[in-house]
């Protein structure tokens, strides 16, 4: 257990150092998400005004839009972490060395992603406050009640990231697939089936619905039922297990073909 603690600690330090070292890239990422939101926000506001939607109805829609965008930034960063880390490590020539350590490669990537999740949450929350200040649409963000479902559900996103990371080991260039997946991830936080069990079959979708329930409905994590937590945990375990299975199989194929030591 101690080795995972040190791996998490080193990964967290590495992430903060890279954010500081590559300031331009860090600022560019934040600006990209901010500009993208403002473009969609102003477009949505103008579209609503042209249709004669009332200010009250528009405010409700914009509130949900802000929360949806906040969740999307978190899952897009978490999803991309694993796949892009595999590509980056392969480019640097350290992927084979990582695979030779006494910690499984999939475990290294997951612990790294958990460390990055902490940083991504801080960035996303800061971005959320900037967005609320800019748009003057303030939401009572219950940090603790929101973080709990996110931490439960994010493992389903890690599972999808592991699948893409495994494909990156074999096929090397999968940027097109990663770009397409970003549009798929938008649907996870914007489309909610009426049947809760149908929603529970979709990665992170049920969690996103419950976060809307908490933030917009002015509820707390204690208002969620045992069934709600069961569906969220079951969904994460299912997709995370599939992700681990696919990734480990891809590692075996990559080893057999001698693909780990080259890009």
UniProtKB/TrEMBL annotation:
<feature type="transmembrane region" description="Helical">
    <location>
        <begin position="229"/>
        <end position="247"/>
    </location>
</feature>
<dbReference type="InterPro" id="IPR051784">
    <property type="entry name" value="Nod_factor_ABC_transporter"/>
</dbReference>
<feature type="transmembrane region" description="Helical">
    <location>
        <begin position="177"/>
        <end position="193"/>
    </location>
</feature>
<feature type="transmembrane region" description="Helical">
    <location>
        <begin position="143"/>
        <end position="170"/>
    </location>
</feature>
<keyword id="KW-0812">Transmembrane</keyword>
<keyword id="KW-1133">Transmembrane helix</keyword>
<feature type="transmembrane region" description="Helical">
    <location>
        <begin position="108"/>
        <end position="131"/>
    </location>
</feature>
<feature type="transmembrane region" description="Helical">
    <location>
        <begin position="30"/>
        <end position="53"/>
    </location>
</feature>
<protein>
    <recommendedName>
        <fullName>ABC transporter</fullName>
    </recommendedName>
</protein>
<keyword id="KW-0472">Membrane</keyword>
<feature type="transmembrane region" description="Helical">
    <location>
        <begin position="65"/>
        <end position="87"/>
    </location>
</feature>
